[in-house]
Amino acid sequence: MAVHKLILDDAFDEVLYTLIGIHCTLEDYRLAYLLNKYLGVTLARKVLDLDYDNGKASYSIYEWEDEKQLVTWSLVSNISKTETLQTIDYKSLFDTQQNIIKTNYLLTEYKTVNYFLKIDSAFSFGKEKYILDSILTIPQIATAYSIDSNQLKSKDNLIFN
Q1: Average pLDDT over residues 123-143
Q2: How does DSSP classify residue 8?
Q3: Where are the alpha helices (DSSP H) in the chain?
C-alpha cells in the first residue's frame, strides 16, 4: 500500500496584506472618520472589539470590505488600557485599595504606534505610496509609515477573523 504525504510548509505563510502604522492622539472614531474622508473608504466600527488574553486586553477595530476590488480594510488600535483594583496591605490600621492601569499592546514591537491600518491585499508600491501620502495629508496625524510584516514577531495578532 502506497503512503502519500503532503508537505504544506509555506502554503499558509504567504498572506498578502499591507500594514501601515499611524501615530496620532485622536480617538479611534475620529481617526476612522478622517480616514473615510481622505481615502474615500467606509470604515465602520465592528460590534465586538478584538479580545485577547480572555478579556484582559481589548482593542477597538473598524472594518470595511470593498466588494468591487475584493479588499478588506481594518483600522485597529494598538493600545489597550485596563484598570484593576488592587488591595495594598501596609500592615496598618486601614487596608487601602489602589487603581492600577495596565497597558497592553497589540504588537509589542511597535509600542509607539497608536493605530494600525491593515489592508488585506497586495498593492503595488505606487498604490501603497499613494495611500500613505493621502494619510499624511491629514493634519491631525503626526506620522504614518509602512511596516514590513515579515519582520513582525507577533504577526498572529493581526488575524482578525
Answers
A1: 88
A2: -
A3: 28-39, 125-136
